Description:
By secondary structure, this protein is of the alpha/beta class. The chain has 7 helices and 9 strands.
Amino acid sequence: MHLLIIRHGQCLGQCDPTYSSDPDSPLSPHGEHQAHQLAQRLCGEQLTHILSSPLVRSLLTASIIADVIGHQRIDVWPELREGWNDRHRGLGRTVLQRRFPRAVLPSSMTEEGWAHGGDTNYDVFFVRAQGVLCAIKQQFGADDRIAIVTHGGFANYLLHAILHIMPTTPQWFELANCSLSCVRLVPEPAKERPNWPLYPPVEAEVLSINDVRHLSG
């Protein structure tokens, strides 16, 4: 199973002071351009699934990718949202569906919106990432190639969960907007490396981190 972990394109919250306190700001024009560049890169990746955070900047990035590569479905997972200490209500079901027709929304996302926030500390955030990793392993198979469109913070914690980087020794991966980090989850580690004393079986192979070769400028 290959996981292609993608940080959304540049959003207005990153470049326009008017949106600095908005947890759900849209992509900037530059961010949309970045998403198109990334989509062209992904045309040869034979993606089987696209997962996305429900925040607008991620959903628009995922939608641009789906449009360009001709993928008909974006599965929206609220658990892929960014960390946010305060409480915020995300956009309602009808609004999101109208803006992102390829999105398949979970039943938990209602007309009243969805709950964003309440991530009180690193441990809570890390547990959410562990839950996402567990769900991915349960729902998808060894031959799947899954694009996960999320955020800089959550992408870090997902990598922590994959690589068993524990909360007692947190690390940070600098991930640019529309960067690509690719990890292969090894289905049967012992069969791939039988009796290799210097290279023992591993659960995950890191193929790239913060790959931005597709971005110009």
